[in-house]
User: What shape does this take?
Amino acid sequence: METRQLEYFVAVAEELSFTRAAARVFAVQSSVSAGVRALEAELGARLFERTKRSVALTSQGEALLPRARAVLDAVDEAHAAVAPGPHLVRGTVRLGVFTNLGYLGLPRVLAAFRERHPGVELRLTPSPAGSTGLGEDVRRGVVDVAFTGLDPQDHPGLRYTRLTSATFVAVLPAGHPLAGAASVAPGDLADEHVVTTPRGFGNRVVAERAFAHAGVAPRADTEVADVGDLPAFVAAGFGVAVVPADMYEPADGAVAVPLDAPEAWSLGLVTRPHPSAAAAALVAGLVHALGSRPTPD
Assistant: This one.
């Protein structure tokens, strides 16, 4: 079994296309196809279901994928161990992201990382299940590093690094009786309709804990996939919202009032317990750029 065959396999598994996989690994499609067939022959297993229009992993392919990634990570670590300097870290890092990270200046931060580590290829991918889904993606090896809006205890078995913390604000219609208040308690919103993000999103999980701590459960009857859109929905009359202050984006017709609750929203990073050299370098770069304090495993 050759590492190049595993590289071809992982590329096809992630792209679900032999054409895109070939472009990604700088090889002709026939070489990628031949490499995957040779790997299937050696393993005695069919790794992909192929049709004229689609490519999908078989159950055997699903089982092999995290192990193939682990092998390639180990190869990258071997190269890094004998490299003449820290700037020669090599490999691919799949970074799990979610929307509303614009306030971090992430493109600038990642550009600085690439300048320092030109041998590392970055691939950014979101999860429709928010921080919960990103944590599972790390656990399954789909991504190597992920941003998370959940707390360390929500990611058992993963390595967690806290980056920033923010208090919550209640987003209210401009004409709401509490719009001019100095602060709002979770209990003040007990009878409100709440506009929120889908289940699994970190900001929703932590906000619901604040409500539960206060003994209330507002009606979450409108879900919006982008935190930044919540104030606009509040202004349009869908209800109220609770969002991290760092993620609040002003909208005409809505106001933000500090939420008087002990819970805070934290932005962090999660990796597997023993990340690759490239993944560890990315975490270190984000720590340097954004500031953090590591949390014990």
Remarks:
- The domain at 168-263 is CATH 3.40.190.10 (D-Maltodextrin-Binding Protein; domain 2).
- The first strand starts at residue 48 and ends at 50.
